[in-house]
Design goal:
Layout: E1 3-7, H1 15-20, H2 25-35, E2 39-43, E3 56-60, H3 64-70, E4 78-81, H4 85-88, H5 95-107, E5 110-113, H6 116-125, E6 132-135, E7 159-165, H7 173-180, E8 187-193, H8 199-208, E9 215-219, H9 223-232, E10 235-238, H10 247-255, E11 259-262, H11 267-271, E12 276-278, H12 283-295, H13 297-314, H14 317-331, H15 338-341, H16 343-359
Helix pairs in contact: 2-14, 3-5, 7-12, 10-13
């Protein structure tokens, strides 16, 4: 039995936000580890970690929690999963942030990549010489997203496109709206999101494109309701400018929902031949891919049926949990002490921890 602390932004979020994000990788991982009989504690990034209580700390996403562990002089192993699609796609211009991520990567005992393309990026751009480095895709429970046999003839009336994600610049929803203006009036769009940073500006863009009657800003949905929305939609569209390994694509695959997505980050490796890929930021190309999917819907849903079997096998929760446990066992007691042995590094760590508390 291991004592494991999982750190992630979702664990510091409000209860209503966590309810919507129950399908996030950190929550799925923590639950799976607990079901295996391990003692699992969860923490938000802004919590002060008492590392000695645990056999291992696994931090998801870059934040204060990652820097706490990177600057620790203790011997508790630090595992880091960055989920950093922006850096992977060259869209992190902040030099300070890039350097800080580099520190976390270099000082982790193990780094988890979500896909082989992300692993190649990490090996090329970060010092991982002393870290275990594994590719472990996020797992999704197929029973949470039941397969639906769709109308092979396509829709007789309106087509329902679906976007699931955040309303932030990196997600490219503005590109999706511009592509909607190139599609027939019988095509409608539902936007499901839990972060609404750009909602007002996107509503204004939709109005300026005369799309207000065709675009529904649905807001956040809990997992059960989201699963029903996947079942009633015709095509999932993900127009992101950057991604690591978006869970929504796996969820769509499991639901048998045809996918049109940007060819960025880990998406090509994730989607394989089970959907349509387009260059990011190109509204015309996105509209053409959506049109081709609608015009060849019978073939698309046949391909999506095969995609469900692929998704259920490759992104199985059990596979994700067992891979993490093998990695944890490998690093516990083997590599963590390297952070504590170097007296110069211990002094640097103290300075970094002081700076971290000053900016917190």
């Amino acid at each position: 039995m291991l004592r494991i602390c999982i750190v992630g932004g979702v664990f510091g979020a409000r209860d209503e936000v966590r309810a919507v994000l129950r399908g996030s990788p950190e929550i799925i991982l923590a639950g799976g580890l607990a079901r295996c009989g391990h003692v699992v504690t969860t923490a938000g990034h802004n919590e002060v970690l008492d590392c000695e209580r645990y056999d291992l700390v696994h931090v998801h996403h870059f934040g204060r929690g990652a820097m706490q562990m990177a600057c620790s002089n203790g011997v508790v192993p630090f595992v880091f999963t960055s989920h950093d699609g922006a850096s992977m796609c060259g869209l992190t211009p902040d030099l300070v942030r890039r350097r800080a991520i580099g520190i976390a990567m270099a000082r982790a005992d193990a780094v988890v990549a979500l896909s082989e393309p992300e692993a190649r990026y990490q090996r090329k751009n970060y010092n991982l010489d002393s870290a275990a480095h594994e590719v472990i895709p996020n797992g999704i429970d197929p029973s949470s997203f039941p397969y639906v046999r769709r109308n092979a003839a396509g829709k007789g009336a309106a087509w329902q496109l679906l976007y699931v994600g955040q309303l932030i610049e990196l997600k490219g929803v503005d590109v999706l709206l511009r592509s909607m203006s190139l599609l027939p009036g019988s095509v409608h769009l539902m936007l499901v999101y839990h972060t609404n940073a750009r909602e007002e500006s996107l509503r204004q863009l939709a109005a300026s494109l005369s799309l207000s009657e065709r675009v529904h800003f649905a807001g956040p949905k809990e997992p059960a309701e989201l699963a029903r929305i996947y079942q009633s939609a015709d095509i999932l569209v993900l127009p992101s400018r950057a991604e690591a390994l978006p869970s929504v694509i796996t969820e769509a695959l499991l639901s048998g929902l045809p996918v049109v997505a940007s060819s960025v980050g880990g998406i090509p490796d994730q989607l394989r031949d089970y959907g349509e890929l387009v260059p990011p930021g190109n509204a015309a190309a996105l509209a053409l891919a959506i049109t081709n999917t609608m015009n060849n819907y019978s073939q698309q849903i046949t391909r999506s049926a095969l995609g469900r079997a692929y998704g259920a096998e490759r992104f199985a929760v059990e596979t994700m949990i067992s891979a993490h446990l093998r990695l944890y066992t490998r690093v516990i007691g083997c590599t963590s002490a390297r952070r504590a042995r170097n007296p110069i590094k211990r002094t640097v760590n103290r300075a970094l921890r002081t700076a971290l508390h000053l900016v917190a």
